[in-house]
Amino acid sequence: MLSIRPASLSDIPAITGIYAGDVANGTATFELEPPDQAEMAMRMRHITETGFPYLTAEWDGAVAGYAYAGTYRLRPAYRFTVENSVYVAPAAQRRGVGRALLDALIDECSKRGFRQMIAVIGDSRTQAGSIALHKAAGFRITGTLDHVGFKHGQWLDTLLMQRALGSGADEPPV
Questions:
Q1: Which domain holds residue 14?
Q2: How far is the C-alpha of 57 from the C-alpha of 46, rounded, in Å?
Q3: pTM over the 0.90 mark
Q4: Which among 10, 96, 139, 174 is most buried, taking Cβ atoms within 10 Å?
Q5: What is the DSSP letter of 53?
Q6: Is the distance from CB of 5 to CB of 53 less than 8 angstroms?
Q7: How far is CA 79 from CA 11, 84, 108, in A?
Q8: Among 68, 167, 64, 174, which residue's Cα sits nearest to residue 116?
Q9: Are 5 and 56 in contact (CB under 8 A)?
Q10: What's the CA angle centered on 70, arms 15 and 160, to 5 degrees?
């Protein structure tokens, strides 16, 4: 059974393990060295203490993935725009975990008054699943930044995707 809930510090060991695998073996993130549990806990606290959601997916009592939204850019005019991150444990992929996390994250960000969500997807050549997930959740491709990351001996791009939250740009924020 799958459930989505706010993440807690007790989830950090599982979250750290999921992310470490993506850092060490993948190109979705451009981080080069997997952060330890203390660093991941600090990041979670920063996200939640600054008013952004951080969610965990549980499958039969085990952490199957996590998602969070955070600052897209630091300048104040961007304050209604968030950047999302979604990570799913390898054993839980292709089971609807990513979609459940992303849908819950979109809903939570909308409730908090954010108006745009940006997905910055590393290495579009190998991230067909992430691209399809975001398209299914209403994102559209808005651009590609070619050769902006160098990892595992190769130059990588980032694909930018975007979707409106709530009323989007149809009215001023409150």
A1: 2-164
A2: 20
A3: yes
A4: 139
A5: -
A6: no
A7: 28, 14, 16
A8: 167
A9: yes
A10: 100
